[in-house]
Design brief:
By secondary structure, this protein is an all-alpha fold. Helix content is 71%, strand content 0%. It comes from Lasius platythorax.
Length: 239
Amino acid sequence: MTQVFNTLVHLVSLVIYAFTLHYAFTKLYFPTGSFDKKFENFDPGQLKYLTVWDVILQAVFFLICLLNDFYGTNAVNPKKPPFARKLKDYFHASLGFPVAMFVGVTFWALMFVDRELVLPKALDPYFPWWLNHLMHTMIMVTTVFEMIVAPRQYPKRSRGLGILVSFMLVYLIWMHVIYYKSGVWVYPVMDVLTQPLRILFFAVLLTFCTILYFLGETLNNIVWGNEHTKHKKSHAKSK
């Protein structure tokens, strides 16, 4: 029954994020003269935004979860985890959880301070409220729920953090490439910061993202730590 429930959760999550991406790339449209006109010199479309990168990550992750449901294992502490399970564990620990929480928390925090810094009110007629919640709220809900319903073995911190920091640096470079080619920052908040404050802002965000990695590891230990201990003891007794 647990296996069926896990598979259903993963399938529904995959469908949600596949639909979100479909809508974002094929239906989401900002008319000429609106916010996106600023990117007329160079516009990579929805791939400008870290939010969309994260939705892609979540879709890939839940596809991996489904593959693991059928070809891997959801055992608490498998002796020899198959490739699908290893990939799932690495993905969720290093990218799935911390990036989703980073996007969700920073977006809603900036919305609370001044929504014009991240999602100008002028875009409301073109950006549905439900799409906003799929991209910025649901990502946190599903990644936390996944942590509760299915166990994982966290990778070595050096590897997990290495993957996370590398991903964030790649996006940071991409954001500067967009600025170099278009003369416009992807996020309006960058326009109100001086160069030293931007550097400090990026450093704080990277630090926050790293903290979220440790938060995910801690939450996983709280939820599954006792189960891992029980299974290790049972393996030891069987020997």
